[in-house]
Specification:
Layout (H helix, E strand, L loop, with lengths): L2 H21 L4 H11 L4 H25 L5 H24 L2 H24 L5 H8 L4 H22 L4 H10 L5 H25 L5 H24 L2 H25 L1
């Protein structure tokens, strides 16, 4: 790799880290296409390396949110527990799926992700009391059990598609556990780091990670993640909602173009 390649990989990481810090989501939608189309990685290598990058960036972002008091360990740990097991199962499935099938699966994932982006800004969450009544969650152990089950399902998606599952975790934290937006983003990134670590170990054991590229892009995610988290923690929740909404719209358009060209 030449100097230009190194620079582009760091810039890729900065963009991915910034995205993670602002919307609590994995940079998978930019990292995987860049590695698979731009550098000729197989889909499995792109997924495995993307998971490693997610771990690095998410840890940096979650630490920044933790310093600002915007991380809920008590609620997030149960989802993380389920997601770890699910990520291993997803990594196993990814190895067994043919390369073409895996690419199609990732395209479907991006479409669904774009739909979630649109819905997120259109439907505000219900009150916590009404949600609890609807789900009939009267005890902490019930919420914890459901959180583990949700984490397991999202973890499978993580290992299979190479995404830390951040946006899915974010939606659960907002709509089910009713966390404020700042705290939901911080907690989501921590869960994503744990889930992505489990998934990356699974892929690493199967030789699906490019360590050098992962570390270079990971360095960029630390830079972008810390800068983005600093900005997000300083602005109001109302403004942060607008920023997130704009990012969702742009990402949805970009992903649609990628799918149509494919």
């Amino acid at each position: 790799m030449n100097f230009l390649t190194y620079a582009l990989l760091i810039l890729l990481g900065i963009g991915s880290g910034g995205m993670t810090s602002l919307i609590g989501a994995s940079g998978v939608m930019v990292v995987i296409p860049a590695l698979s189309l731009g550098m000729g990685f197989t889909m499995k290598e792109a997924i495995g390396t993307s998971l490693m990058i997610d771990v690095i960036g998410s840890l940096a972002v979650s630490y920044s949110y933790f310093k600002n008091g915007n991380l809920d360990l008590k609620r997030g740990v149960w989802i993380a527990l389920g997601s770890v097991a699910g990520a291993q199962l997803g990594a196993l499935f990814a190895t067994a799926i043919p390369e073409t099938g895996l690419g199609s699966g990732f395209a479907v994932f991006m479409v669904l992700f774009g739909v979630i982006m649109i819905i997120r800004g259109a439907k505000p969450p219900k009150t916590a009391s009404k949600t609890d009544k609807t789900l009939k969650l009267k005890h902490d152990w019930q919420r914890n059990l459901i959180s583990v089950a949700i984490g397991f399902a999202l973890g499978i998606n993580c290992g299979l598609m190479g995404a830390g599952g951040g946006i899915n975790f974010l939606l659960v934290l907002l709509f089910v556990l009713k966390l404020p937006l700042h705290k939901a983003i911080g907690t989501s990134t921590l869960i994503m780091a744990i889930t992505a670590l489990s998934g990356s170990i699974g892929h690493g054991l199967r030789g699906n990670i490019n360590l050098v590229v992962g570390l270079i892009v990971g360095l960029g995610t630390i830079i972008g993640g810390l800068l983005g988290a600093r900005f997000a923690n300083r602005i109001s929740e109302k403004l942060l909602n607008k920023v997130i909404g704009c990012i969702f719209i742009v990402l949805g358009i970009v992903m649609t173009v990628i799918i149509l060209k494919g």
